[in-house]
Each structure stands twice: as structure tokens, then as C-alpha cells.
Amino acid sequence: MALRALITGTSSGIGREIALKFLSQGITVTGLDIKRESISHPNYSHILCDIAGDSLPEPLSPYDILINNAGVQDSGRDIEINLKGTIRVTEKYAFHEGIKSVLFISSASGQTGSEFPEYAASKGGVTAYMKNVALRIAKYGATSNSLSPGGVLTELNARVINSPELWKRVMDETLLEKWASPEEIAEWAYFVCVVNRSMTAQDILIDNGEAAKANFVW
Fold first, then answer.
1. What would the pLDDT profile of 74-108 be if each residue is shown by its tens digit?
2. So where are the chain's domains?
3. 3.40.50.720, 3.30.70.2200, 3.40.50.300, 3.40.640.10: which CATH number matches 4-152+181-206?
4. Which of 18, 48, 56, 74 stands 20 to 30 A from 31 (CA)?
5. Which residues cross the membrane (predicted)?
């Protein structure tokens, strides 16, 4: 029987690429998003939903995989959506016999405290909540982990990507002098949720070495 995944925030960016990756591997995907669907595939269904404000729909059937990706940045609702909305979704869909994995898309900001205050706080909270979920979901033999991307080449970051001056400043702070693509983050998500069976309660930093950048002065 094909695996079933619920993924929030599938209309664009990282969430959309994760959905496409899972669909390409024969996994049935349900997307929850405040925007209309952008994926056309026979094994994809889309539900319009504000995870922080709307009533969450009943599952079409129990999900094997839950991926919490939906989020906003510097919106005035960062904690409400990124943290509280993520908790609402997880508490409703994750805790049942048959669940295999839960994944949270956090952010490098949750570790470093950089970027906007409420955004950094919301993502730090997501990472802490992921560990709480790992403790509670272990009885099902399931894993709970998070990915913390640094810069990713998405529309959300167009302001930096499209500015030669800002882009140079960012690259000067990044060891590998590049950002990740949404497709690469999707590969990580597939590995952590489907291939992985033994890693749980872990946050994986994918930032091209930005947090590790250090200038030695002598």
C-alpha cells in the first residue's frame, strides 16, 4: 500500500518541491495551504486552509508522514502561524498507530537568532517542539526531526537574490558561497522521512557553512 503524506505549504517554494519529490516516488500527497494548488498530479489532493485560523479538516485517512512546512516571515503573524499553527497541525494528525515520521521545516535562524525577532523565535520554538514530539511519538516506532535551512533560492528571498550588493554580502558570510535550492531541501526531506529509520529528535542545519564562518585574527 502506498505511503500517504500530509504536507503544509505546498503552493510554492520548499513545500511544493517536497510534494513533487514524494509524488515522484509513488507517495500519495495531501497539501494544506492558504493559497490555491499549483500541482497537477493524480495522487495529489489540495485543501485550502489557514493552519493558524481555520478549522483543520479531518484526514482523508491516517497519514504515514507529516511534514510541517507552512510558514511566513516578518508578517506580524510569525509566531501564530509558524509555531502555533504547526503545533495545531501536529497535534491533530501525528499521534496515531501507523505514523512513520514527522518532519518540521525550521530555519537556521532558530539556531543563530538572526533575521526578524518573531521569525527567529518562532523557528526556535519549532525546533524545541520537534524534540517534544520525538519523545511522545517514539511509542509508535516513529521519528520526529527538523531541517534548518539557511538561505534557499525561493521567491521569499528575491530581495536578496536580485540585488548584486546584498548577494555579495551574503556570499561573503557563507563558506561554500552558494545557497541551497528547494529541490535539494526536498531530497533531504525524503531521506529523513522515508529512508531514515534510526535518527530522531535531531535538527539538521543546511546552511552552506554560514553559521561556521569564522575569520581568524592574529
1. 999 999 999 999 999 999 999 999 999 999 999 99
2. 4-152+181-206
3. 3.40.50.720
4. 74
5. none
